[in-house]
Automatic annotation (TrEMBL):
Domain Zinc finger CGNR as annotated: residue spans: 134-176
InterPro entries reported for this sequence: ABATE, ABATE_dom_sf, Znf_CGNR
Organism of derivation: Nonomuraea monospora
Lineage: Bacteria, Bacillati, Actinomycetota, Actinomycetes, Streptosporangiales
Family matches, as PANTHER family: BLL6575 PROTEIN
Domain of life: Bacteria
Name of this protein: CGNR zinc finger domain-containing protein
Gene3D superfamilies the record matches: Jann2411-like domain
């Protein structure tokens, strides 16, 4: 399955690698190879890094901490100190390098550097002015978090092409089905 980067923040996109959190969970980071693929798909690294089962467990811990922290901010609850410590520990190492090479931008580093870049993006969001724009997709059963950067701050779905389209089509069918009965 392909990764999607529609949340508006790399940390939220990492959290979005789990779908349907309140139902039959779909985990897009099931193996270390999936994690390595994600770092390239996210534009963090040009080449897939080495990834172990321990690295995957660490990425899962970071992902869940980001999700819980963002959910707390979104709902106005206090952030859990252990989740904040997990995020900060992942953000401390040097981030992935971004250099200008002869053929354009070159991104390099190891898995730890890629996760540091991701954790730093999440920290900037959660502690910055856009924190109040974090929303959860209203489509059932989607649980993706995203930044509502729409003009009126009324965005309801993580992605109009997916969840939004399905929700609007279902509403259309329901209206026409109810109209046919009358």
């Amino acid at each position: 399955m392909d990764f999607t980067f529609i949340s508006g923040n790399l940390g939220l996109d990492l959290a979005g690698t789990v779908g349907r959190r309140r139902g039959a969970r779909v985990d897009l980071l099931a193996t270390p190879a999936d994690l390595a693929r994600w770092t390239v798909a996210a534009g963090l690294l040009d080449d897939r890094p080495d990834a172990s089962d321990d690295d995957l467990a660490g990425a899962w811990a970071l992902r869940e901490a980001i999700y819980r922290l963002a959910s707390a901010v979104r709902t106005g609850k206090a952030m859990d100190a252990a989740d904040r410590d997990t995020l900060n520990a992942a953000a401390r190492p040097e981030p992935a390098s971004v250099l200008l090479g002869e053929r354009g931008v070159e991104r390099g580093g190891d898995l730890r550097a890629a996760l540091s870049s991701t954790a730093r993006a999440a920290a900037e969001l959660l502690g910055g002015p856009q924190a109040g724009l974090i929303r959860e997709c209203e489509a059932d059963p989607c649980t993706r978090l995203y930044i509502d950067a729409s003009h009126r701050r009324t965005r309801r779905w993580c992605d109009m092409r997916g969840c939004g389209n399905r929700a609007k089509a279902a509403a259309f069918r329901a209206r026409h089905h109810d109209g046919a009965r009358a």
